[in-house]
Amino acid sequence: MHKKLFIPGPVEVSQDVLEKMAMPMIGHRSKEASELQRRISDNLRKLFYTKNEILLSTSSGTGLMEGAVRCGTLKRAAIFSVGAFGDRWYSIAESNNVPADKFEFPMGEAVDPKVVDDVLKTGKYDLITVTHNETSTGVMNPIEEIAQVVKKYPDVIFCVDTVSSAAGVKIEVDKLGIDICITSSQKCLALPPGLSICTFSEKARERAEKVKFRGTYLDLLALYKYIKKKDYQYPTTPSLSHMFALDYQLDKILNQEGLENRFKKHIEMAEIVRNWADKYFEVFADRNHLSNTLTTVKNTRGISVADLNKELGKRGFIISNGYGSLKEKTFRIAHMGDCTVNDVKELLQNINEILNLK
Ligand code: PMP
């Protein structure tokens, strides 16, 4: 039996979107390939509220995170981490021999913009990374306030991981001054995993021109240059199947559902799950900074999350255990992508029945 995914990625993919992955191939150096990538980029500009260039990568989001740190840092990177995916930025920097410092906040808490100011004030850093929506804890960082601070430092490249929020939460890239905004296909865009996307500002391009060793496959400047020179083509052979599905899904999101409706739906689903958690358990993260795309629930009843998932599995659902050290102490319910309010209600009803919650 297929288990309906309420894990924070991959998420359920609609049948009509899945079928687009089975379309016949086209040549990646054809006019159709240019048209496909150009149309996708134009639509993604709407989704990210930006005039900047859009880069696609046949990799998951971590690939573009690696490309961003490597191609964007000349001096030193400041990594602001509120959990596992913030930590990932740091290990990427370390393994690429990019000088970096990590500034951590306790699990369940958000980045304090005042600390960002104090760090950038030192003048030591020329790139910062922020995780917009920390999938390990269910914290959504105050990106507007952080952006206000970063704007005071025009030499700093602002990289934001919106892997588990873009297309579910409004992220206005140009208004926020984000230079590189990254997401993956398998979260709020509700596509299969394997493709990642980022916005790429002129400032990021100028910086990358000055970085000597940018690697090859994840060289953001190479991706950018190919788009310009070869009319929206990809330097190597991209996952065209993902691109067919993304092209179709973007049309659905923008022209059928509507972005504002999609954002509203995510808020509505989040409120339902938070209210349920308040009633029967506790919400784990700081109440002022809760994610709209997943809820991390504190296991105040001491249930076995593994057993709950086993029972849910028999009924055709799956949720996520807590991440890393939060395993069994918390569990996570994702409400992202094409998931609906009714899907969420159905899941919670089943959990109530299994745990005998009244
Ligand atoms: N950042 C966040 C916030 C994530 O949730 C994830 C995936 N769970 C990643 C980065 C890594 O993305 P990917 O698995 O697409 O490489």
For the record, give the distance between the C-alpha atoms at the N and C termini, rounded to a whole number.
Answer: 28 Å
Low-confidence stretches: none
Mean pLDDT: 98
Strand order of the largest sheet: 2-10-9-8-5-3-4
Bound molecules: 4'-deoxy-4'-aminopyridoxal-5'-phosphate
Task: Find the structural class using helix and strand composition.
Answer: alpha/beta
Question: What share of residues is helical?
Answer: 40-55%
Describe this structure in words.
By secondary structure, the chain is of the alpha/beta class. It contains 13 helices and 15 strands. A 7-stranded mixed β-sheet has the order 2-10-9-8-5-3-4, with helices on both faces. The site of 4'-deoxy-4'-aminopyridoxal-5'-phosphate has 12 residues, from helix 3.
Please specify the SSE layout and strand pairing.
Elements: E1 4-5, H1 15-20, H2 31-47, E2 53-57, H3 61-72, E3 77-81, H4 84-95, E4 100-104, H5 113-121, E5 127-131, E6 133-134, E7 139-140, H6 143-150, E8 157-161, H7 173-176, E9 180-184, E10 196-200, H8 202-210, H9 220-229, H10 240-257, H11 259-280, E11 282-283, E12 294-298, H12 305-314, E13 317-318, E14 320-321, E15 330-334, H13 341-355
Parallel strand pairs: 1-13, 3-4, 3-5, 5-8, 8-9
Antiparallel strand pairs: 2-10, 6-7, 9-10, 11-12, 12-15, 14-15
4'-deoxy-4'-aminopyridoxal-5'-phosphate (PMP) binds at residues 9, 60-62, 85, 131, 133, 135, 161, 163-164, 184.
Structural descriptors:
alpha/beta; binds 4'-deoxy-4'-aminopyridoxal-5'-phosphate; four-stranded antiparallel beta sheet
